[in-house]
Design goal:
- The protein folds into 3 domains: about 120 residues, Orthogonal Bundle (Helix Hairpins); about 140 residues, Adenine-n6-DNA-methyltransferase TaqI, Chain A, domain 2, CATH 3.90.220; about 140 residues, DNA methylase specificity domains (Adenine-n6-DNA-methyltransferase TaqI, Chain A, domain 2), CATH 3.90.220.
- Helix content is about 35%, strand content about 20%.
- It contains 12 helices and 21 strands.
- It has a 4-stranded antiparallel sheet. It has a 4-stranded mixed sheet with strand order 15-14-19-16.
- It is elongated, with a radius of gyration of 28 Å.
Length: about 400
């Protein structure tokens, strides 16, 4: 009875209807061979002039079995005279040291660094086992050990128990999951193309090369150039009464975000920090981190009624000449990113405090043209957001499949 119950467990929750029977438990080491990698001496130039691809752990991508960043090539001498080996195509490339848990299947012969333990299957479909391991990625991460370099051994991974169906069912599962991967790739590519289009368009818009006309088809007034300091003013009184306002942080993705969402469900109140020096803000306020504005750590509060942010942040508002959303678009432009580099100051860490930030010049159309520019960019941002949401939905769908299609 116990054996029957065990057999019943060896079938996935989600299965193609044409398949029956139970899956079998095997050890990964029984289903193929393992081959390590190596790095030829970089000082020997002749080793790195050839046509045999070589990759390191940084050339694989998280949760992406199909893409490998190949840009370095070895010569035959490098293979003959070093510990580097040529890995057959359709092997499962498994990083077991730096970047533990990243996986890929190679579509051509290549060489890898010593951070890989490469699985060459002979009794199992490559993409089936790659997706299987992706579904069990936490197992690989938990195998990681050591102090300076986290990792696991080939013996560890050989011992992994794998439940497998017939080869035909393996191939059907692998093909279906790969089609989902292809959908994610297509959406990601579409998003990147749209972002490139937006970048080029913003360069034209903020340089004045691309102009709008008013409702009567006439040109808007000539643009001016003004310093940001002429168009904004600092705000942010200190929370001297120690009032427990909602606490926010600024990140480079969403701008203002509740601090508790940013830091493991806890904010400065929960941690017992002194919030009397925090700055009070209300709706239509900009805030940025002087040490992280170079990576986009700036936000706009929109309609947030009230809150506080760390005293490290610079808070400011705009004057009537400058439309808030126009400025927000400009702060995401290539022109502004170049100006950050010009006006930052400091030693090891660079800062852009308000004094220098206010010196940056911005192209200033009329308020109505600013609004037209903002609408146009907002439409593109909405399309990017829509595609990004589809990517997230598809990735979530795949995670569910990985949990249900394997035993």
């Amino acid at each position: 009875m116990a054996d029957i119950e065990k057999e019943k467990m060896l079938a996935p929750k989600l299965r193609f209807k044409e398949f029956r029977g139970f899956w079998q438990d095997r050890r990964l080491g029984e289903l193929g061979n393992f081959m390590g990698g190596g790095t030829p001496t970089t000082s020997v130039e002749k080793y790195w002039i050839g046509d045999i691809p070589w990759i390191s752990s940084s050339d694989l991508f998280e949760d992406d079995l199909h893409n490998i960043n190949i840009y370095r090539y070895l010569s035959k001498e490098a293979i003959n005279e070093s510990a580097t080996k040529v890995i057959p195509k359709n092997s499962v490339l498994i990083i077991y040291r730096v970047g533990v848990g990243k996986l890929a299947v190679n579509k051509q012969e290549l060489c890898t660094s010593q951070d890989f333990s490469n699985f060459i299957p002979y009794e199992i479909d490559s993409y089936f086992i790659a997706h299987y391991l992706l579904a069990r990625k936490n197992l690989l991460i938990n195998f990681a050990q050591g102090t300076s370099i986290k990792g696991f051994t080939t013996s560890d991974i050989k011992s992994i128990k794998v439940s497998i169906p017939t080869l035909l069912e393996q191939q059907k599962i692998a093909s279906f999951l790969s089609s989902v991967d292809k959908k994610i790739q297509q959406l990601t590519r579409k998003k990147e193309l749209l972002k490139q289009y937006k970048k080029g368009l913003m360069q034209q818009l903020f340089s004045g090369k691309l102009r709008f006309k008013d409702e009567n088809g006439k040109a808007f007034p000539k643009w001016e150039k003004k310093r940001i300091g002429e168009l904004t003013f600092k705000v942010g009184k200190k929370n001297t009464k120690n009032i427990k306002y909602p606490i926010y942080s600024i990140n480079n993705q969403e701008g203002f975000r509740p601090q508790s969402e940013q830091f493991d469900g806890l904010d400065s109140n929960d941690r017992g920090y002194d919030i009397s020096l925090y700055k009070i803000f209300d709706a239509k306020t900009f805030a940025y981190n002087p040490a992280r504005i170079n990576v986009g750590s700036i936000g706009y509060s929109h309609n947030i009624a009230e809150g506080i942010v760390s005293s490290l942040y610079v808070c400011f508002k705009t004057k009537q000449e400058l439309e808030d959303l126009y400025l927000l678009c400009y702060l995401d432009s290539y022109s502004f990113k170049k100006d950050i580099l010009r006006f930052e100051e400091g030693g090891v860490r660079q800062y852009l405090f308000y004094e220098n930030f206010s010196k940056i010049k911005i192209a200033l159309p009329s308020n109505q043209e600013q609004i037209e520019i903002t609408k146009f960019i907002s439409e593109i941002n909405s399309r990017i957001t829509l595609i990004n949401n589809k990517i997230i939905q598809t990735q979530t769908f795949k995670k569910g499949l990985l949990q249900q299609m394997f035993v």
